[in-house]
Amino acid sequence: MPSIETLASFLAISVAITLSPGPDNLMVLGQSLARGRRAGFGIALGCALGCFTHTLWATLGLSAILLASPNAFFALKLGGAAYLAWLGIQALRSPGSNAPGAAADAPAWYRYVVRGFIANAINPKVALFFLAFLPQFVQPANGPLELQMLALGAVFAAQTIAVFGAIAFASGSIAALIAHRPDFGKWLDRTAGMIFIGLAAHLLFSGERD
């Protein structure tokens, strides 16, 4: 297992990375504003599960295969961009979270978990990030390398839930304060949709391994 000092430095760096603007926290922010805290918490949990999935990939060497195969990288990137674009289109077509019947038509909480998980798990850039990031905190003297990487991945996932949960709580609170303003829910959904489409475009058109 990693030492206490290693875990402390890993946690500090992980929190800084998670707080920095990126696709995941933008998804949490957008969905919390448009659909409330429960949606934001669902996305947060899904992203955390996706992060741990990337840990498993890195531990098993699948991320290294992705790094060595440009075609596999592009295919996964294309799939991730398509999924984000689909979420964006769904949000743009939504009548708004305050529209009549919107609450009844809102996805169940676990569906937000699934959305967050898929969006994170099929992002090849996140896979390559974990492949490069985790080994920096692994030391042979501290035991089996695979167990150390799994422990680090669990720490990263846990702090992701805490940080994204705080974002969901804060932005969900703002949404609750303005939830009853006419047509505001519609524009919040439009904003969330544009965030998803922007993330899709960024994933698709940014440099392959930047």
Kindly list the characteristics that best describe this protein.
single chain, about 210 residues, mainly alpha, 10 helices
Structure description:
With 210 residues, the chain is an all-alpha fold. It has one domain. Helices cover 79% and strands 0% of the residues. The chain contains 10 helices and no strands. It has helices spanning 4-19, 23-35, 37-60, 62-68, 70-93, 102-105, 109-121, 124-133, 145-177, 184-205. It is globular.
Shape: globular
> How far is it from the N-terminal to the C-terminal residue, by CA?
31 Å
Structural class: mainly alpha
Radius of gyration: 18 Å
Mean pLDDT across residues: 79
Order of helices and strands: HHHHHHHHHH
Kindly state the number of beta strands.
Answer: 0
Number of domains: 1
Give the strand content: under 5%
Give a brief outline of the structure.
By secondary structure, the chain is mainly α.
Helices, strands, pairings?
Blueprint: H1 4-19, H2 23-35, H3 37-60, H4 62-68, H5 70-93, H6 102-105, H7 109-121, H8 124-133, H9 145-177, H10 184-205
